Amino acid sequence: MTYYIYSTLATDMNYTEYQEPINGQKVSIVKHAVLVHGRSGVADKNLITPRGVVTKVSDEDFAMLSKNTVFKLHQDNGYIAFEKKQADVDKVIVNMKLRDVSAPITPEFYEKVPEQIAKPDAKSKSRRRA
Questions:
Q1: What is d(CA 73, CA 55) in angstroms, rounded to the nearest whole number?
Q2: What are the φ/ψ torsions at residue 87 (nearest 5 degrees)?
């Protein structure tokens, strides 16, 4: 059986599981890694900007993802969802958050949240994006 992971993150995520250190080993060795595609809200070379992206994973990959703390965090925050059968991406992402902090700024961002743009940071003299 396969699972379909739906993402509204602006970047691809490589969720990784590492081996336990062997004989005082200091370098982490990857045991299993699953790439979940992102790039939601990011234009591609044809200037097409998807609102959500789907990635097909196996049962073994999904078992690892369900134990991964970062994957769970993204799921709890509303950026990741999964289904056992493939569905239309636009229908699945209706109840998900459509923008994460790393998403590119668009003209709509300026219209909706003008008070959050370039507020001075209290700890430094620089200006930051909220």
A1: 18
A2: -135, 170
- Residue 86 within a domain: yes
Domain that holds residue 73: 2-99
Instruction: Tell me the residue length of the chain.
Output: 130
More confident residue, 33 or 113: 33
Distance between CA atoms of 121 and 80, rounded to whole angstroms? Answer: 30
pLDDT single digits (tens) 58-94: 999 999 999 999 999 999 999 999 999 999 998 999 8
Q: How many domains does the chain fold into?
A: 1
Backbone angles phi, psi at 52, to 5 degrees: -160, 160
Residue 118 CA to residue 114 CA, distance in Å, equals: 9
pLDDT band at 13 (very low <50, low <70, confident <90, very high): very high
Does residue 18 lie in a domain region?
yes
Residue 111 maps to a domain: no
Residues in a beta bridge with 128: 119
CA distance 95 to 81: 10
11 vs 18: CA distance, rounded Å = 22
Q: Would residue 127 count as lying in a domain? A: no
